[in-house]
Amino acid sequence: MLATVLYEDGDHRWIMFARDPGKPDGIIDTNQYLIQSGNEAILLDPGGIELFAPMLSSVLKYVPAEGITKLFASHQDPDIISSLGLWDQALPNAELYSPWLWESFIRHFGMNNITYKAIPDEGMTITLGRIQLQFIPAHYLHSSGNFHVWDAKAGILMSGDVGAALEEPGAPLWVDSMERHAPKMKKFHQRWMPSDAAKHDWIRRVSALDIKIMAPQHGRLFKPPHVADFLRWFEQLPVGVAIKG
Fold this sequence. Notes:
The chain contains seven helices and twelve strands. With 245 residues, the protein is α/β, with parallel strands linked by helices. It has a single domain, classed as Metallo-beta-lactamase, Chain A (4-Layer Sandwich).
């Protein structure tokens, strides 16, 4: 599992885990994130069950298991949280923050020790060490109960499936041209994002943020000016168009 430090300021840092060279064929590639502040850390969308071993090995190089006090699942999909049952054994005193809507579904992945912290529809703010993290509503993008994570101090928005692209192994980490990158995102967003109203609500929310990095769950990450380029592109993109007739 490859690890990339995205941000570091004293004991506050973001680390991305992705592009696992040992990933089984047929498994979608995902980006996992660790935020650390002081003696606490949170794992964002920690991955599928097949990634648990390389994820755990990689994460423990940066933070001890007892330092991981929180997990976050943006929604219920297996590619981001089916590893929960194994994290439940490795992190017996942690909390999982996830939409209230999906609690009874997510528990099917196994959760005997970790405490479920239901995020209300309007979102919430939590404290991690010396910083605060905001869970921003992203409902129907693509899940009916869905949230993104905003770290105002770092200027990083973990944007889940928004901004995601499915690419070949070895693709660059950063978007360098929206003109070249947009075709890689178009079909994914049109198929998986079902609501223009939800899309516009999300754009309104995040346009007010000073985003230094937009970090999706799949594919490349965005820095200015490509963050603004993406928002303009997404705003005009018709979504929910897979079924016609």
